């Protein structure tokens, strides 16, 4: 779930995939998941939209690709500042909105015994999952995995292991194979995220393929290993989803394999420069909406629950989706664009104040980023 970074280049096709993935997750929650979980209206097209949950796989692949692109050979301080600035402003807005709605609306959620200011404080750090605390908003769970991935990249940057990426990826895939997707929560689980590591690793490998980091054969072999393991894990996830919805036919492995294969094909074409075009520049406007849209779209489920049986369900679906996209634009324009530079300036001043341990070259690098 990356957005605009200040680079001299941008892969616009990823903006298209990013936005479509966010839209797929939104429609999955508004149709199939909402119907099965909260009793919102049924939609005949949910036979297709139910697979929108796989948009998360696409998010993680994009993250693996873009985070490596923006952090490779950069300092740990640069990486930390860029990630904090990118993630927190929009997240804080969504977190506070969720809290106010739940707390003042006296709404209780499954798995949350009671919404209070202590739980809000945990969630504002974005580290609530690592403390064993519940998410205020259901969509926050993915950020726990993102942070686990960021920590791996941070370690690579700190120990300057950029020349050893293929070995690191091979070891990571090996652990993923041994651990399996249903590993119990422990330190290794949070660090190496075996449940979704294949998606992050695939994104990394496709970026390494694009920049010709190593002989293509080595990267392709790792990609084949990653793809097979990805499908194996997603088959377990399909079974888990069917169990969750108490419907053994809700999801089919064949359709899941087709969709995941489509993601890999898309990235393969992108990595080989087959999808890049300056004519796609306009898609950057869609890309910047994706993160706020993902964070905010859960509020639409509540709207579907309240008005789903009172209004025309298709008009409601389109209307709520359009409102969520508009609100995402407002968050991007009035929160991210305005407060990201402020937060970045603040963090840079902290680095400058800590001049005894900060390398001036690193400070300069962060300022220019």
Can you give keywords for this protein?
369 residues, 0% strand, disordered N terminus
Compute the average pLDDT: 90
Class by SSE composition: mainly alpha
Portion in beta strands:
under 5%
- The Cα radius of gyration reads 21 Å
Poorly predicted runs: 1-8
Helix-strand layout with pairing:
Blueprint: H1 12-38, H2 46-49, H3 55-71, H4 76-104, H5 117-124, H6 141-158, H7 165-179, H8 187-192, H9 197-210, H10 216-244, H11 253-271, H12 284-287, H13 290-296, H14 298-307, H15 313-353, H16 360-368
Helix pairs in contact: 1-3, 1-13, 1-14, 3-6, 3-9, 4-6, 4-13, 4-15, 4-16, 7-9, 7-10, 9-10, 9-11, 10-11, 13-15, 14-15, 15-16
Structure description:
The protein has 369 residues and is an all-alpha fold. The chain contains 16 helices and no strands. α1 packs parallel to α14, α7 runs parallel beside α10 and α9 runs antiparallel to α10 (216-244). The radius of gyration is 21 Å and the shape is globular. Residues 1-8 have low confidence and may be disordered.
Describe what is shown at a glance.
With 369 residues, the chain is mainly alpha-helical. The protein is 70% helix and 0% strand.
